[in-house]
Amino acid sequence: xxxxxxxxxxxxxxxxxxxxxxxxxxxxxxxxxxxxxxxxxxxxxxxxxxxxxxxxxxxxxxxxxxxxxxxxxxxxxxxxxxxxxxxxxxxxxxxxxxxxxxxxxxxxxxxxxxxxxxxxxxxxxxxxxxxxxxxxxxxxxxxxxxxxxxxxxxxxxxxxxxxxxxxxxxxxxxxxxxxxxxxxxxxxxx
Length: 190
Description:
The chain is of the alpha+beta class. It is 28% helix and 18% strand.
């Protein structure tokens, strides 16, 4: 087994917050594990189970897809394309100028990486149930979530830290290296 650590432009103990400079992708360390015989392993990932993740945000069902199909879409096991909903999304915004301002405010913390995909499942999935979120995209629902509400943020933290996760690895040809495994991470405390 051979471990290779590649880093670029690491700066430790700097007395100020840097302005500008390299992007996060260029700045962070990338650890690669290679071994013989060579395996075309592109990466290993973990994410909350899809039904549990969406349930955390109160979503029960999407138009056109059950949760199992949505999970396959996230794992890229399904060639299903998102069906655009013919229902119109009614905005609370009065005109185009206000809509543009709202979009810019929502994008304040958004960055685009060079590898950013134009297809965003969160934007494409249209909520069917419950009725209070009906006909909203999941991304619009996330934007409207009261993130300053401690009960909600605690529930989201519990889901992300202690909930069941799907663990999977991809090969360089974008196929799964092995079947996904569902597990709960151990409770590690200091």
